[in-house]
Amino acid sequence: MTELKLADLHEEIKKATEKSIKNNHRFMVFLCSEDHDRLINLSKKIFEYYLKICPDCIPKGFRLLLAGRTRFIEIVNNTNLFNFVKNRKIHFKESENVLGETYSALVIDLTEGFNPNDLGIIIETIEKGGIIIVLSPPVDKWNNFISKWHKELVSEPYSIESVIPRFYRRFIAHTLEAKGTIIYDADKSKIVKRFQEGQREDEKEIVIPERRNIKKKLYKLCATQDQVNALYEFETFFDRKREKKVAVITADRGRGKTAILGILTPHLISRMQRVLKRAIRIMVVAQTPQSVQTYFRFLTIALKRHGFVDHKIKESSGMITVVTGKHLRVEYVVPRRAIAEARYADVVIVDEAASIDVNTLFEILKDTRYAIFSSTIHGYEGSGRSFSVRFLKRLEMDESVEIQKISLEEPIRYAKGDPIERWLYKTLLLDSKPAALNEEDIEAIKDGKLEFEYIDKDAFIENEDLLYDFFGIYVLAHYRNRPSDLVILFDMPNHIAFRVSVNGKTVCSLHVAIEGSIEEDVIAKMSEGYKPKGQIIPDVVLKHHWDYSFPKYKGLRVVRIATHPDVMDMGIGTFALKNLLEWAYTEGYDWVGSGFGVSSELLRFWSRTGFIPVHITPQRNEISGEYTVVVIQGLKDEIREKLWSLNSDFVKRVVEYLSDELKDLDFETAYLLLHSLHKSYDAEKPKLTETDVSRMEKYIEGISLYEYVSDIARPIVRYYYLLSDSNRVKLDELEERVLIQKCLQLKSWWEFEELLKEGRVYNLMHSAIVKIWKWFVSG
């Protein structure tokens, strides 16, 4: 393509470059064609022109990021097209490796489609004044574009022909409207969309406070006044008025919250070391080591500036995981390990806390005096707004905890008002929020004026308000929202949506997947280890109960159900499930189920509507720290009978697991699982010798100790829990707590803490066994 034909595009790029540099914004150039080679060669020419017209703004450390799938990476590697500038090439599947990094420009290949999670992460690495060159198929192709990523997602027995690319349709529609974007048809040498300048917002001048305890050298590492202000907040971090001190930092992505934690850490170490006169241990908790590499990079710089010159760095798979020195040990740990080791840390730092289960966060906090939590408000790891609603509200109820809240608003890579960020947030729905409810709406909910409805997914594309309200509830109610969730619901044929509304406003959102209806030949493959995509519950039932008939039945799996945070605990979720069951029955489905990270709260919610547990993972998720439970409700008599049998077998396993894999399961959840039994398990009654009876009677009389009859008590207690509630003697809650934890979970007496201090635990144990013994010998 000649320079003459590119003259108009060059002029547009020149204008975009000048305006973006002036405003400290970024801009994007979509190059569209069916010819992939043409796009790659054109992108090189455009990038060379960009470098030519703005040499004064290019820093010494200029770095180009090249991102795409295998075809693109192989071409740029083999041709060396971009080797005239320092660059890094990444496959989309490696996108999380660049979280927190900064690049000067980007060439990204979307010609084979993309996962929106990757798009968000990669684009957000580009700094102010940077050009983002996008290799794209022709604009009109996006409306019917089925990508390789769709092929990876589509569930059996559905095929790729059933996929409708609603997400890509919405993506290109928003791109055509976005400011800061040029769209160029390379096949016709025509600009389809011209550049529009974003609105500049003035940046704050960085002023370091005159009076400070934290060293000025650390303040100088801050890139924005927001970061300076955040660091200053920690001047009083150790001025503790209550038993615990917790700082919470929230920000949108790219505001430098992880960096500020690394800058701050040497001050924390120095301050505590002076008081405690020993080496200080800092525990850094996050889902993956990749997500805290920015923290460790800033930590190593800050340590030197603070005067800690003797530290050593330990790496694993090319990533920093431990920094040690004479006065310090800073170590990365996964959330599950942090629960066990937090008590040995002087300060616990949890990065991207929104991506970690709230119960796990509280377990980590339980034995911690000083903790710092950071969370992205709108991001790709989880929802910080959910973190605020679900974690902070609960934390604020604890009067022993002093909370210091800090927020960051200024972007560090570009100025506020950046049009590319706005395009990205809108396209990926990162800033969605639920409808505002007024008193009239709340009164209507109290009066039961709720509507349940199936949503045609095309309506989401036609009605942005409906879409924002629907997904806004997920942002506030769930902590693992990712942009890819939007694609799965939009595009996959077996995913459907429902909502509960009041006065036309969404107050509960349901994302549901169709499962089951599996053919005999596929079931045979599954029995040999094959895992069909999108068949979560049938696969669990087959492989953990070896029921070959269940996968043939057609069911619904509730992927997500979330209630508007302003009207929780008003029966809306239960209303939604009851109506979903009625809808499923009318439509001819055989069952409805769900799988979720278990908690007593969630288990009670599902149990209220008649769902029964049939499976629990015997190991906690290494990242989230949760056990996963599967619950199902049958819609026909034959399915109910089948599920009761599966549940009986499941409870029998729970009884055994509690002494091993589930030994650390909380009592409330264990209690609910044991009492979920709908049909007694066909268990043989333990046989006792005359000596066994005599020994037990001496314990009942108070002459012997539990330790001398535990071999008799445990089999009887296990047998007790294999019978349905109607066949068991009733115990009060504290008696049952001691019984389950001592006889089934084999806990030591010292683990009963308060009950032991009060001197009640032995009496409660005796009382429970007396009741069970009388029931046992009379039956």
From TrEMBL:
InterPro entries: Acyl_CoA_acyltransferase, GNAT_dom, P-loop_NTPase, TcmA/NAT10_helicase, TmcA/NAT10/Kre33, TmcA/NAT10_N, tRNA_acetyltr_TmcA
Source taxon at top rank: Archaea
Ligand binding (acetyl-CoA): I561, A562, T563, E601, R608
GO cellular component terms listed in the entry, alphabetical order: cytoplasm
GO process annotations (BP): rRNA acetylation involved in maturation of SSU-rRNA; tRNA acetylation; tRNA wobble cytosine modification
Compartments in which it is found: Cytoplasm
EC numbers for this chain: 2.3.1.193
Domain N-acetyltransferase: 471-583, 586-635
Cross-referenced SUPFAM superfamilies: Acyl-CoA N-acyltransferases (Nat), P-loop containing nucleoside triphosphate hydrolases
Domain TcmA/NAT10 helicase, residue spans: 248-431
The TmcA/NAT10 N-terminal domain, residue ranges: 9-186
Gene Ontology MF annotations: 18S rRNA cytidine N-acetyltransferase activity; ATP binding; mRNA N-acetyltransferase activity; tRNA binding; tRNA cytidine N4-acetyltransferase activity
Binding site for ATP: Q227, R413
Pfam families: GNAT_acetyltr_2, NAT10_TcmA_helicase, TmcA_N
Assigned keywords, A-Z: Acyltransferase, ATP-binding, Cytoplasm, Nucleotide-binding, RNA-binding, Transferase, tRNA processing, tRNA-binding
Swiss-Prot/TrEMBL catalytic activity: cytidine(34) in elongator tRNA(Met) + acetyl-CoA + ATP + H2O = N(4)-acetylcytidine(34) in elongator tRNA(Met) + ADP + phosphate + CoA + H(+); a cytidine in mRNA + acetyl-CoA + ATP + H2O = an N(4)-acetylcytidine in mRNA + ADP + phosphate + CoA + H(+); a cytidine in RNA + acetyl-CoA + ATP + H2O = an N(4)-acetylcytidine in RNA + ADP + phosphate + CoA + H(+); a cytidine in tRNA + acetyl-CoA + ATP + H2O = an N(4)-acetylcytidine in tRNA + ADP + phosphate + CoA + H(+)
Keyword GTP-binding: no
Stated family: Belongs to the TmcA family.
Function in brief: Catalyzes the formation of N(4)-acetylcytidine (ac(4)C) at the wobble position of tRNA(Met), by using acetyl-CoA as an acetyl donor and ATP (or GTP).
Protein name, entry field: tRNA(Met) cytidine acetyltransferase TmcA
Gene coding for it: tmcA
